[in-house]
């Protein structure tokens, strides 16, 4: 219990320093002074400064993820994706230093735990669109496009003085991306062979009439169609 309270105190202090002065303000010395602990305590609990920064990112991201995962799914998965986009951009604008900590240092194969959790939520939203037959590209391509566009939009808005931010820019970018990866609400037929293949690949795990091997094979076949058509 004492360990948890100490950890929480350190993370809170580091979060406040991050919000006030950015990443450079979160030095071990500053965190120790703000939280009233000695540096060995920080290293024992977090390993190193990077471990502490990741804990700070998770702490700040927790409320955002709670709101995002608490959104009740509607009958329209595309509309749910819109709401997810708006939450993502809103979080970045409200917590610019934390957002930069999570997404600002992209490295191949390296992702913060907060970013991984957010990616899992986005993948779930994309999967629902695929299952509805409204995804016109493969799930991975759609998720990557939505993620990259959302991050780029958020960083662009963060970089602008608040009084210069175009209130309609995020919505315009959001709708452009949605139009690129989804069809109108007319089912998979409107997306052509790729849309049908994406829908079948997404639904394959839910076809009890097929064996596990058959479901896996069906998904593999449909993925080939998506790749060859893309």
UniProtKB/TrEMBL annotation:
- Give the taxonomic lineage as stored in the record: Bacteria, Bacillati, Actinomycetota, Actinomycetes, Kitasatosporales
Q: Which PANTHER family match?
A: HTH-TYPE TRANSCRIPTIONAL REGULATOR BETI (PTHR30055:SF234), HTH-TYPE TRANSCRIPTIONAL REGULATOR RUTR (PTHR30055)
Q: Any idea what this protein is called? A: TetR/AcrR family transcriptional regulator
Keyword presence, Iron? no
What's the superkingdom here?
Answer: Bacteria
Could you tell me the keywords of this UniProt record?
Answer: DNA-binding, Transcription, Transcription regulation
UniProt entry tagged with the keyword Metal-binding = no
- DNA-binding region, residue intervals: 27-46
Gene3D superfamilies according to UniProt: Homeodomain-like, Tetracycline Repressor, domain 2
- HTH tetR-type domain span: 4-64
